[in-house]
Backbone:
């Protein structure tokens, strides 16, 4: 969404189970966001709300709801240094991906050993 200059005001989690049952829940964000940490936090909250224990999932979908242009979103001042550092790092990662491609940077656990 950040690449397209968009931010979501809500998230919807859809789960489809092996028996054909479908579960869907929407969560409204306190403010529109396209930041990984914000979206991940609310996605985890939706997963917790599903109360999964032993259900066999066949499909999982997470989608942004009420998407707006990020130019319409006011940037909030934050006194949380950790959050600000994450946002700066997120912007740097976006620039690296734009320059070298989407597969060059990511979590270290998904890359194979160099040696």
Residues:
């Amino acid at each position: 969404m950040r690449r397209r200059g968009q931010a979501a005001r809500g998230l919807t989690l859809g789960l489809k189970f092996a028996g054909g049952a479908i579960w869907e829940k929407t969560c409204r964000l306190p403010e529109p966001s396209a930041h990984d940490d914000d979206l991940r936090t609310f996605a985890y909250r939706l997963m917790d709300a599903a109360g999964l224990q032993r259900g066999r999932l066949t499909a999982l979908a997470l989608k942004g709801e009420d998407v707006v242009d990020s130019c319409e979103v006011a940037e909030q001042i934050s006194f949380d240094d950790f959050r600000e550092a994450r946002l700066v790092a997120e912007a740097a990662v976006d620039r690296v991906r734009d320059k070298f491609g989407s597969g060059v940077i990511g979590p270290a656990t998904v890359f194979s050993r160099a040696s």
